[in-house]
Amino acid sequence: MPDYVLAIDQGTTSSRAMIFNHSGRVVSVGQLEHDQIFPRAGWVEHNPEQIWNNVREAVGLALTRANVTYTDIAAVGITNQRETAVVWDKTTGKPVYNAIVWQDTRTQPIVEELGGDAGPDKYKAIVGLPLATYFSGPKVKWILDNVDGAREAAERGDLLFGNTDAWVLWNMTGGVDGGIHVTDVTNASRTMLMDLDTLTWREDIAADMGIPVSMLPQIRSSSEVYGPGRPGGLLPGVPIAGILGDQQAATFGQACFEIGAAKNTYGTGNFMLLNTGTEKVPSKNGLLTTVCYKIGDQPQRYALEGSIAVTGSLVQWLRDNLGMFADAPDIEWLARKVEDNGGAYFVPAFSGLFAPYWRPDARGALVGLTRYVNRNHIARAALESVAFQTREVLEAMRADSGVTLTELKVDGGMVANELLMQFQADQLGVDVVRPQVAETTALGAAYAAGIAVGYWSGESDVVANWAEDRRWTPTMDQDERERLYRQWKKAVTRTFDWVDTDTK
After folding, report:
1. Residues paired with 499 in a beta bridge
2. How far apart are the C-alpha atoms of 33 and 267, rounded to whole Å?
3. Peptide bond into 435 cis (omega under 30)
4. How far is CA 219 from CA 180, 183, 187, 225, 294, in A?
5. Euclidean distance between CA atoms 421 and 120, whole angstroms
6. CA-CA-CA-CA torsion for 149, 152, 156, 157, nearest 10 degrees?
7. How many Å apart are CA 134 and CA 303, to the nearest integer?
8. What gap in Å lies between CA 265 and CA 312, rounded to an integer?
9. What tens digit of pLDDT does each residue of 439-490 get?
10. pTM for this one?
């Protein structure tokens, strides 16, 4: 058996290749950012060809930095930004339009039309999701309706659709020369097109959206051999054997295998998942019911998910759009220069509000400003918004599941921010725990692939490899905790009803 497993993490802002050893430790990393394209307010796109080129280059960098070749790689796992829709021509290999990103809100009129008199919960009992701009299906409909010749090509059977996992896999396994068109259950569960019970495409919902079933990838488990790397590529013949949407991959990498285990990932957005086992738990409190993972022939596991659209990307916005600091980690340095938020609250509803509100009409607001407030207070308010939003999701999760968490496992880039982690523990009233390997998204995909080929024996190896790095315990007075949260909830209401029918 070769010594290592490679994971491709195709994320919202960058593509990474990470090589892991049997202990689940990082051996090397290659990473490249891709362009964020904003053609209009509310529109967010990526160039799929740039993403594929970056994936190849990242893999080359990781192999070079580890001083290994493809013969040292036992398997490849893929994890990806979910709900970001790519439509491409299988005869040319070319996308017919840019990838429409999960944050994009252009499909709101389509979502409202599909809901009709039934409203946003029209398909929720079947797919676990409300009708919202977040998910892939309406994005595909927009492309077919708005790109010249796309619908005709789709009806001829020439077009394929996938989230970015399917796009990367198709190219890795040959592209126009026999590329495999497959996705896994976790990604399929984010399209609004898959039946959560049968794990099959719903042709009636696809018909409602005008999407030919011929465009859809085959649905497979999260851990099995899908096919080999293409001849002549960087990984020829290496089995590609794991696919998990990024948040499910982080859940897997955090060893959240027991019912009631939960993790929160701090990335472009924040995503909290609670494992509900083989039971599908419908949400009454604004959460999503989704597939957590499926290992080979084993029964699928489900999760409740709270999705927050803007957290890490708020820091990026303060850096890039306002020029408040040069490097993202500098926000902690600014925020530590003040004792509190100075009465300022920042609600980053740039793409509307996701869980638990699902308010596409909301837009970002900075409230509570006085002459006293300076940029340090604004930096602190931005960080605090991440913790407040997480608390809202956790309370919804507790209401839906009846589970009271005793601690929260955290991962993602923002967990390096120790001021944020302490404030998060203070707001939740439970310990916040960071693992030694904070980038558990790529690690989860690596585990899924390695398990499929026997590199790891199963979930027991994942549990054995997991190790705690740092723990934050609540220190804030209960009255102060509740006062801050009450003010936050008030600030959130100020973002509602901003978008009118004539808003540009």
Report:
1. none
2. 14
3. no
4. 12, 5, 9, 13, 11
5. 34
6. 70
7. 18
8. 10
9. 789 999 999 999 999 999 988 999 999 999 999 999 999 999 999 999 999 9
10. 0.88
